[in-house]
Amino acid sequence: MSLKHKNLLSLAPLSVEDIQLILETADSFKEVSGREIKKVPALRGRTVVNLFFEPSTRTRTSFELAAKRLSADVINFSPSSSSVVKGETLLDTARNIEAMQADIIVLRHSSAGAAETLARGVKSSVINAGDGWHEHPTQALLDLYTIRERGMAFKGLRVAIVGDVAHSRVARSNILALTKLGAEVRVVGPPTMIPLGIEKMGVRVFHHLDEGLRDVQVIMMLRLQLERQGRALFPTIREYARLYGLTSERVKMADPKAIVMHPGPINRGVEIAPEVADSLSSVILDQVANGVAVRMGVLYLMSGAN
Amino acid sequence: MNREQERLIMDAGDIARALTRVAHEILERNKGVKDLALVGIRTGGVHLAHRLAKRIQEIEQAPVPIGDLDITLYRDDLSLRKEQPVLRTTSVPFDISDKIVVLVDDVLFTGRTIRAAMDGLMDLGRPAEIQLAVLVDRGHRQLPIKANYIGKNLPTSREEQVQVLLEEAGEDDRVVILKA
Question: Which of B70, B74, B84, B94 to mutate to test the interface with A (most CBs of A within 10 A)?
Fold first, then answer.
C-alpha cells in the first residue's frame, strides 16, 4: 500500500485507503515528535519549498518544522502578494523554484485552483496549503487525525461545522474527507455564509446553532474572517457572536463527550468563548501538534523518487 | 505460499532450542539482566525479541525491558524508491541510555538493516553497548557487521530467499529456503 498521487491538491481524489494510509503514517511521526531528538534522516538531500503568497504563520511553520524533522532542506519563499498578478506570475515564480531543484512545493495562494495550475506547470510534487476558498487538504487531514486520536470512529460520527462555510477552504476539505469516511456532517451558520446547494456535498444545513449542535460529537468552529465585516454577511460582530459564538452553555447541547476544534487563529469572544477554547473538551492545541506529524506523513509519502 | 517450493531448515523444535541457547548466551555474556534491554526489529525481530524476553525472565526470574524498532525511516534506499515503504511505529517505552541493548532480528543478510537499526537506536539515546542476536545468519554481508548471538549459521546462495515463519504471524514455526 502506498500513496499513488504525485500531488496533494484536494481531498476529492483521495480514497478512504489513501486517507487511512496518511493517518497511519502520521502515527509513526507522532512518535518521532515525542522523542528527545525529533529528527529522522528520511528526506535527506530533498528540497522542500514553502511558497506562500498569503501571510500564514501557523501553516508555514508547521510545514517547515515537518520538513526539517525529516532532514529535508527547506526554503521559504514569500513573494509579497502585491506583486502577484495571478497565473503568469505564479508560473514564473514556480519556474524559478524548479530551477533550484525543488522536490516538493508547498503552495498557499489566495486564488482557488492556484495549486492545480502550479502542479500542471512543474515537475515537482505540489502540496496545496490553502488556495482561496477552495481547499486546505492538510488541515482536514490533521483534523481527522485529531478526531481519530480521541478514539472516535468516523462511521456515523456526528460533526457540526460552524461559521462562514461559504468562504472556508477548511470547511470544504473537511466536508469532503468526513463524508467520504461515513461521518454525518452538518453545517451551521447564517444563510449568507452557507452556500446554496451545499446539501449536494452530503451535509445537512442548520441556521440555528443550538439545533445544529444537538448531540454532535465533534464541534468544528471556523474562524470568523473579521476582514469580511461590512460585506453584508453579518450586521455586527456582536450579533454574530451572540447568535453563532460557541459558549459553554451551548456546548451542553452537544454530546457530553464532544470535542471542540478550531483551525486557528481563534477570535476569542467572537466565534468561541475563551472558557470554551481553554476547556478540557477543546483539542485546539492538539490540532497544532498533530499538524506537524500529519505534514511529516504527507511529505514522506510524496517524496518517492520521480 | 506453495509449500512444495520450500526447503525446511529449522522446525519448531529447532527454533525453540536455538532461542533457549541464545537466551542463555545473552545472560552469560552480560552476567544477568542488569542494564539489559531487548529491541526487536520490525517485523520479524519483534516476535523473536518477545520470545527471548520470556525465556530470560524464566531463567533469571527478572523482567527485561523490551521495545520494537521500525527502521524504515533510516533505510539507505529511500531516495531511490519510486514509492515510499509503509511505516510502522517504533515503540521503545524506556530510556535506552546506558543500557546494554540487544537488537534482535530474524535473518542477518547484507547488514543494511542492522546499520539502519543502529542509527535509529542512537536517535533514541546513548546505549552503553549494542549487541546483535539473530535467528539465522545467511552470510553475504555488504557492511562490516557481525552478530553476537546466532541461532543458526546457514550458507546460502545470494539468489535464495530465507524466510522465518512464526506462529505470531499466523504460520507454523519454521525456517525455510524458497527456491528461486
Answer: B84
Q: What integer best gives the mean pLDDT of chain A?
A: 92
pTM of the model: 0.91
Range of the domain at A53: 16-136+290-301
Residues A23 and A112 in one domain: yes
CA distance A40 to A69: 6
Which CA distances in Å does A23 have to A213, A250, B34, B60, B93? 27, 31, 38, 41, 22
- Partner-chain contact A304 B74, CB within 8 Å: no
Q: Which three cell numbers stand for residue A260?
A: 471542540
Query: A166 and A278 in one domain?
Result: yes
> Residue B86 and residue A25: Cβ atoms within 8 Å?
yes
Q: What is the DSSP letter of B73?
A: G
Domain count for chain A, please give it: 2
CATH number for A266: 3.40.50.1370
ipTM for the whole complex = 0.83
Whether residue A199 is found in the same domain as residue A180: yes
Chain B residues with CB under 8 Å of A40 CB are: 73-74, 123
Same domain membership, residue A275 and residue A294: no
Of A169, A61, A51, give the one whose Cα is nearest residue A108.
A51
User: What SS3 string covers A150-191?
Assistant: CCCCCCCCEEEEECCHHHCHHHHHHHHHHHHCCCEEEEECCH
Residue A255 in domain? yes
A11 is a domain residue: no
Residues A257 and A294 in one domain: no
CB A194 within 8 A of CB A166: yes
Same domain, A55 and A172: no
Residue A7 belongs to a domain: no
Split at pLDDT 50, 70, 90, the class of A145 is very high
A146: cis peptide before it, omega within 30°? no
Contacts of A301 (CB under 8 A, 6+ apart): A2, A3, A21, A22, A25, B84
> Quick one: pLDDT band at residue A236, thresholds 50, 70, 90?
confident
Decide if A71 is inside a domain. Answer: yes
pLDDT in tens, A46-94: 999 999 988 888 999 999 999 999 999 999 988 765 555 555 578 888 8
The per-residue pLDDT for range A163-192, each reduced to its tens digit, is 999 999 999 999 999 999 999 999 999 999
Mutate: best of B68, B79, B115, partner A, most A CBs <10 A: B79
Residue A250: CB atoms within 10 Å: 18
Give me the CATH code for the B3-73+87-178 domain, please: 3.40.50.2020
Q: Of all helices (H) and strands (E), which one includes residue B37?
A: strand B36-41
Nearest CA in chain B to A46: B79
